Amino acid sequence: MFDKPIIGITMGDPASIGPEIAVKALLNKEVYDICKPILVGDADVFNDIIKRLHLDAKINPIQNVEEAKFEFGNIDVYDLQNVKMNKLVFGEVSAMAGNAAFGAVKKVIDLAMMGDIDATVTGPINKKSINEAGHHFAGHTEIYAHFTNTRKYAMLLVEDNLKVIHVSTHVSLRQACDLVKKDRILEVIELLYNGLISLGETNLKIGIAGLNPHAGDSGLFGTEDAEEILPAVQEALLRGYNVDGPIPPDTMFAKAATGAYGGVVAMYHDQGHIPFKLSGFQWDAEKKQMASVKGVNITLGLPIIRTSVDHGTAFEIAGKGIASADAMLLAIESAVQLSRYRKQIIV
C-alpha cells in the first residue's frame, strides 16, 4: 500500500471550461479516496464558478502545499492571483487569461520539480491567449519540455484500448513528413514501451503506422515508409521490442481499437488524434454538443508526471455548466497510476 499521492491540477484558461471541469472532478469523493488533489490557479476564478453553477463546494486558498487540508467538499487552491475578475470574459481570447493559464502551468511544474507534489494534471489552455501574453510555446508539451530541460519526449494519448504515441505533434503537415526519421521513430518506440509498463499494460506489442497511403505501397506513393519507418522497425526488433509495421493506418487503428496492440505509433498529429477522438468523444446531435469527452494526454520522457485532458478550451460552452469532467477524472486516475508506479520502482 502507498500513501495517497499529492496531485497538482491546473485550472487551464480561466475563460474556458477548465475551472469548471476541475471543480466538477473534485466533487467526486472517489478522487479523494485515491489522491490528495490541489487546484493551481486563482481562487477567485474557482469561487466564481462555484457560485455561478450553484455547486456544493468551498474553496480553501493556500500559498504553499503544507496549508492544504485535502478535505472533500473543501477544495484546496494554490492561489496565484493572476486574474482580474472584472476583466474576465468567458470564451474570450485575452493576454490576461493566457498569462494566468501559463502561470498555473509554470507553478505546477515547479512544485513537481521540487518534490512538493507527486504528479501534475493540466486543464485546457488556449494557445493564442498564451502567445498573446508573451509566452511563445506551441502547447503544454513544449512548455513542460522547456522547463524540465527535456529533449526526448512525446505525446501519448490513452482511451480504453487505444494508446497512441506521436512522432511529431504541433508542426505543419509538410514539416511533419520531414520529421519521420528512423532515429526519432526508435526514440518514441522506447518511450511508448516504458509508458505502457508504467501504466500497467501487459500487452506490449506495438503497431507502427505508415506515413503514406497504403504505407507507401512499395514506393508507389512515397519512399519514407521503406527508407525510414521500415529500418526503424527492423532495428527495434533487433533490440527486443515486439513491433509490427509499417502498417497502413486505416488498418492498424481498426485493429488497435480491439486491443490487438498494447500501443501504436502515429507519424503525425492528426493521424493519431482522429481515431483517438472517434473512440473517446461522443457528440449529441440533438443538443449539438459533446455528451461525453474521454481521453488522457500523457507526456512521456519527462522527469515529472504530466497527464492532461485531451480536449480544448470549449469557449463556446464556458460558464454554462454543461462541460463534461470525464476526461479530467481519467487524467487524475492516470496520474495516480503513474505516481504509484514511479514510487514502486524508486523503492
TrEMBL record:
Keywords on record: Metal-binding, NAD, Oxidoreductase
Record GO terms (molecular function): metal ion binding; NAD binding; oxidoreductase activity
Presence of the UniProt keyword Metal-binding in the record: yes
Pfam families: PdxA
Gene3D superfamilies, alphabetized: Isopropylmalate Dehydrogenase (3.40.718.10)
UniProt cross-references to InterPro entries, sorted A to Z: PdxA_fam
UniProt KW NAD keyword: yes
Protein name as it appears in the record: 4-hydroxythreonine-4-phosphate dehydrogenase
SUPFAM superfamilies xrefs: Isocitrate/Isopropylmalate dehydrogenase-like
